[in-house]
Amino acid sequence: ALGMAAEGGHARVVEVLLTWGLGDSDGGADGDSGADDDAGAEGSLDLRAGAYEPAARSTLDAGDAYGCKPLLLAAACGSVETVLALLKHGAQVDGRDNNDRTALIRCAYDGFVQVALTLIEASADVNAFDRIGNTALNSASGYGHTGTVTALLQAGADIDGIRVNDRRTPLIRACLYGHYATATELLARGA
To answer: How far apart are CA 175 and CA 129, in angstroms?
Structure first.
């Protein structure tokens, strides 16, 4: 249930599951936490501090069949609120899936700059690389996500990092796929 709620970007449902300590072990086949769907509709949930046991770390860092953890799923769908809820409950900011991708790498593919900024603020490793050597900056550059590129560079991402098996820098990837604005940003920052 937790992974499904995170993948859908449903921050309120994630918060309820984690606060009640249900996570993925609640037994609900339909992903229903049992809480009233209208609870907290006007803002954050009004849950009494300390009234419920938090979800176990194993629930937060458990992956699906592909190793995708709730934080990676929330980052991939662009939900800042869900990312914040998971981090608040102790999700590992640099947890990895079966391909060694982190949440920051996942959100960079789709250019979710606000999610990237949230993860960076939570001390995500901006130079982490996946199994084939892709970094968040390589991904954002190759897909032309200039705002995400700027955020990563401001946080200290290696502008000339070559870890990808094809040996292409972020600038070469931006140029290869015709991303003028991204290439211009990389050049302006010293690539």
So the answer is: 21
Using an 8 Å Cβ cutoff, are 75 and 148 in contact?
no
Compute the distance between CA of residue 184 and CA of residue 180 in angstroms, rounded to an integer. 6
> From first to last of its 191 residues, what are the pLDDT tens digits of the chain?
888 889 899 898 988 888 877 664 433 333 333 333 333 333 443 333 443 344 445 577 777 777 789 999 999 999 999 999 999 999 999 999 999 999 999 999 999 999 999 999 999 999 999 998 889 999 999 999 999 999 999 999 999 877 667 788 999 999 999 999 999 999 999 99
Angle made by CA atoms 86, 88, 92, in degrees to the nearest 5: 60
- CA–CA gap between residue 28 and residue 125 (Å, rounded): 34
d(CA 77, CA 1): 16
Token pair 């936490």 in the structure block, residue: 33
Q: What is the pTM of this model?
A: 0.78
